[in-house]
From TrEMBL:
Name of this protein: ABC transporter ATP-binding protein
GO molecular function: ATP binding; ATP hydrolysis activity
Protein's UniProt keywords contain ATP-binding: yes
Family stated for the protein in its record: Belongs to the ABC transporter superfamily.
Pfam families per UniProt: ABC_tran
Superkingdom as given in the UniProt entry: Bacteria
PROSITE patterns assigned to the protein according to its UniProt record, in alphabetical order: ABC_TRANSPORTER_1 (PS00211), ABC_TRANSPORTER_2 (PS50893)
């Protein structure tokens, strides 16, 4: 018999508590290599907290979380090494330039030859002309674009993009869609957290809908019609 491949992301009954607040209350999620999955829901649904757990940034309070075969509870470093993570906010050093951000990321990941890919990504996201400007003066959309570049630089096995389209112009949206398509083509798993249903349908093949910190539906992205989606949120 052939070997059964394991999902790149496998989450069962995830709970995350911050003091008395339960931000995630029983999320189940499976995402496969070579596919892009959308994580959808209103603000406060638990999307960003779930993404932080998958990135190895926030530990799970309960439940099982496996990312590229690494357990987020016992091997968060292994998780962080396997993913490329674009957080919903922050993550950039205001006094550093995009090129310095790329240099630091490449150094931390021990990438010996990264310059050509770094330049290509900056040009694709129309950041080449500002590669040596400090990011403290960047607009929100420019910062979002750079965060996607940094997540994709090392071609990770798991690409986690949290609200990558927020405040981004059409060129940045198109470049992000290309990054997601490239990741799928090379067999990576991509998870995109967003509240923009139309872009989720365009970028992803499947969708997981969260409400109140729990999963309420898993479906094909093409089934996210307006009326059906709104019914899941209410």
């Amino acid at each position: 018999m052939g070997r059964v491949s394991q999902p790149a992301i496998a989450v069962r009954d995830l709970h995350v508590r911050f003091g008395d607040v339960e931000a995630v209350s029983g999320v189940d999620l499976v995402a496969d290599a070579g596919h892009a999955t959308a994580l959808l829901g209103r603000n406060g649904a638990g999307k960003s907290t779930t993404m932080k757990v998958l990135a190895g940034v926030v530990p799970p309070s309960a439940g099982q979380v496996l990312v590229a075969g690494h357990d987020a509870s016992t091997d968060p470093l292994g998780v962080r090494r396997s993913v490329g993570y674009c957080p919903d906010v922050g993550g950039l050093v205001p006094r550093a330039t995009p090129w310095e951000h790329l240099q630091l990321s490449a150094s931390l990941r021990r990438m010996p030859a990264w310059e050509a890919r770094g330049r290509e990504l900056l040009e694709r996201f129309e950041l080449g002309d500002v590669a040596h400007r400090v990011v403290g003066g960047f607009s929100h959309g420019m910062s979002r674009r750079l965060s996607v570049v940094l997540a994709a630089l090392h071609e990770p096995a798991v690409l986690l993009l949290d609200e990558p389209f927020d405040g981004v112009d059409p060129i940045g949206v198109e470049a992000t869609l290309e990054v997601i398509a490239d990741a799928r083509a090379r067999g990576a798993c991509t998870l995109v957290s967003t509240h923009l249903r139309e872009l989720a349908m365009q970028a992803c093949t499947s969708a997981v809908v969260l409400r109140g910190g729990a999963r309420v539906a898993t479906m094909d992205a093409g089934d996210l019609t307006g009326e059906a989606y709104r019914a899941l949120l209410d």
